[in-house]
Design brief:
With about 70 residues, the chain is mainly alpha-helical. It has a single domain, classed as lambda repressor-like DNA-binding domains (434 Repressor (Amino-terminal Domain)), CATH 1.10.260. It is about 50% helix and about 0% strand. It is built from four helices and no strands.
Length: about 70
C-alpha cells in the first residue's frame, strides 16, 4: 500500500492534492486515485516522490521509515 497521503501531509509546507499534482506534473485525479486505491505506475510514483523531495521507496508502507518533509 502506498503512503502518498501521509507523505503529502507530512511535507513542509503541507501540500494539497492540487498543489502536489501541479508540482508533480500529473492530474489531481491521478493523485486522488493513488491515495484512494493505493497504487500507481512507476513513472507516476517517481514524479510524486520527486515533487515531495523523497525517494520512491519512501512512498511504500512497511519500510520502517517515517516520511520526512522537505521544504521546497
Amino acid at each position: 500500500m502506498l503512503r502518498i497521503r501521509e507523505a503529502r501531509e507530512d511535507h513542509k509546507p503541507r501540500l494539497s492534492q492540487e498543489a502536489l499534482a501541479y508540482k508533480a506534473g500529473v492530474s489531481v485525479r491521478t493523485i486522488q486515485r493513488a491515495e484512494d486505491l493505493g497504487r500507481a505506475n512507476s513513472e507516476t510514483l517517481r514524479k510524486i516522490a520527486d515533487a515531495l523531495g523523497i525517494s520512491p521507496g519512501e512512498l511504500f508502507r512497511g519500510n520502517g521509515k517515517r516520511i520526512r518533509g522537505v521544504a521546497s
